Amino acid sequence: MKILHVYRSEPNDDVQKLVEIVSEGRETESFDLNVESPDYDKLVEMVWEADQTICWW
Amino acid sequence: MAKSIGIFVTSPQNMRHVMGVTKAAVAKGAKVKVFFTWTATHLTKCPNFIELCELDNVDVSICADSYKKVGYDVTDIPKGLDEKKMATQAQHGAIIEDYDCYMTL
Amino acid sequence: MSHKVCFMYPSENYILDGIRSALGLSVENMYSYGVVMYNELPELSDYDKENIEWMRDMEGEVYTMNEANVEKHGLPKITLEELGQKLREMDIIIPYGIMRSDKT
Q1: Strand order in the sheet with B101-104
Q2: How large is the ipTM?
Q3: pLDDT, tens digit, 9 for 90 and up, residues A1-18
Q4: CATH code for B5-104?
Q5: How far does the CA of residue B87 sit from the closest CA of chain A (Å)?
Q6: pTM of the predicted model, to two decimals?
Q7: Which positions ≥6 away from B10 have C-beta within 8 Å?
Q8: How far apart are CA C23 and CA A19, in angstroms?
Q9: What CATH number labels C4-95?
Q10: In chain B, at which end, N or C, are there fewer CB atoms within 10 A of the end residue's CB?
Q11: Which residues of B touch A48 (CB under 8 A)?
């Protein structure tokens, strides 16, 4: 199972812990939306390739 | 082949991401459904909301109950929508059931 | 197959409407759960209590990480660790609304 973690802001300690638990033993990728010009083309490709996308706050 | 994407919008802070993801997905040939709920229904007042609604292969709807609860008149339908798009949480269910990929923004 | 979905509510103003949204998926025949992460809930209206009861009737639940909601509202306690494990079972994970400003 491949999981994509998308971050809309800097993840706090609790989010980091949840990501760690959810990701354990699984293939994961991450994408940071919290930048001036996100590469949405790349994000869409990554969403398509993932089995599950989680968009954290 | 392009996979369809459903976007559940629950934050009023992410209109640029909604537009960015939707435009990128549509340009790649994907079908996109966007459903706005709770305070995200304020985004219907953004100047680019109409642009979102007018994109080909994009289905936009909002939670009418939320729109009312955040202070708008449900008979004042946002530009770009019609009465049928003033909908319920069943639209969120449709995103999960009928679309290949799911995002929350 | 019914989907399993979990909403997380870190911000006070998003909790009760987020529960309504979770109920919306229960009635779509999904296993729908909500988690109040930080806040102590105020006195609930009959409408809000009914929404939670209705979710339970359809095999869903609203959990709380804040102990105060256990006694005050009868919500089952969940720890951050337990929440993480629960999320591993979910098909859809919904970080709902905004992260509250004092938990950055």
Answers
A1: B86-87, B58-63, B32-36, B5-9, B101-104
A2: 0.96
A3: 999 999 999 999 999 999
A4: 3.40.1260.10
A5: 24
A6: 0.96
A7: B37, B38, B40, B104, B105, C14, C18, C21, C94, C96, C97
A8: 25
A9: 3.40.1260.10
A10: N
A11: 2-3, 100-101
